[in-house]
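The instructor's notes for this session suggest beginning with a concrete chain rather than abstract definitions. Hand out the sequence below and ask the class to guess, before any prediction is shown, which regions might be ordered.
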Amino acid sequence: MSLDKKNGLSDKKDGFLGKADQSLRSPSLVDLAYDRIEAIILSGQLKGGDRLNDSQLARAFSISRGPVRGALAKLAEAGLVDHIPNRGAFVREIDLHDVLEIYEVRAAIERASAKAACTNLSDDAWRQLEACIHEMDKWYEKGDNESYFKLNLDFHYLIHQNSGNSRLMELYERYSREQRLFRHFSVVRSRMEDSHHEHKAIFKAFQKRDPEAAANAMERHVLSAKSRLVQAVKNVDPELSAV
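After discussion, reveal the predicted structure:
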């Protein structure tokens, strides 16, 4: 499916680019175009292998093709877009086995971040984490998977942000970006109850200011999320052998 009118993905206001026709302004047209395109991809409205038409995107954003091309180049660096010579830019197709490998890497990264953040967490950061888990409680009780998923990302981001280690943060952002579509799929199709209990265990470890417990709880959570993704995919395609 390409980003063109024949597939119904036009730059009209009733399409997925609904608000995209508002002119983008400085400070950075490339960065703003990047944010818009990334949101389209990560929303799941475009799938792996879909073509990203720079001319149409430029028209939709009311800018020239230069910033769009710059944004697509940055998205390629981030692992969300593939550039194919003489063909153009395409949403990257991410293999499930690659994603499962990333979970193993993330388990180590997030374990280290949780341990560091539990040691370094300021009072202000603690209040943010507490507010986040309370919001997660609310959306969990309402059964709102979409809102819960967004807060799930915020919860993990807050912990990495407060690890005091910029390289851990960079690695998390890189791998999390590649996995985000699959993480969303897993949350909306599997047991949110399990994920929520795991987040609460992580929060309880932070509440006790126990770095080792926080690290263990985070590692278990990431590896459990991997298992939930495998099961969610098998529920859609029972013939798939994902492990």
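Then share the key points. The mean pLDDT is 83. The CA atoms of residues 111 and 218 lie 6 Å apart.
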